[in-house]
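ok so I'm stuck.
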Amino acid sequence: MSTKKINSIKGIVFLIISLYLAFTFNEALINFVSKVTLVGWVTGSIILRIVISLAFARGIQLIYKGITANEKPMLVFSIATLVGFTIVFIAQPIYTIDYGDFGTTDLSINLEELEEEVNTEFDLKSKEALIVFFSTNCGTCMEVSNKLGTLQAMGNTPQIIALFPGDEADAIHFMNTNKGTGFSYFMIENNTYFTEAADYAFPSLFLVDKSGSTIQHWEGSLMNYTAFDLINTYK
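replied:
not stuck anymore, here's the structure
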């Protein structure tokens, strides 16, 4: 087999791999971060975008070598890198809230009041916890529950305490269908307390330390890669 044909075949393989990773970006990122433990979510997402872009560019360059006289291969590689990055961006857009610390320390959860509402004394067992106020009919809540369930399965979260209003059957169905089966959960009958404690935003997430003091608070839509890295330090 000629060198040109070999280059073309290699190029096609690179293209297939890069496009597959681009269009399964979240799954690829989860696998990457779970296997390369020294790489966090922010760094991992950036590295993965670069790898996909370069793999796409290498594929185009090899195909170019296989069908032409191979003039200006670095120019082809450079242009293809930009195209590759664009493809990754289309497959997995970069939103303005993906990176950066959008949490706040201004809002805290009072564990004593919460214990009264659920008629349970929380035993954090000297471990940090994520206390999350969920609404079962909230799209963002479902998205965040799936994210937290994925992180929990990877061992990248502290214990997760889920709080729900309304009917317990709805809460169980919510967790079963949104990767929340590993959560500890409690029902809250006092709707006024529930909405006020959550600061009228759902989901509302409180990261608390071993003594129950609030470390950070996020509204669900702001649970981004930076937040994942912070939570990961308290697993």
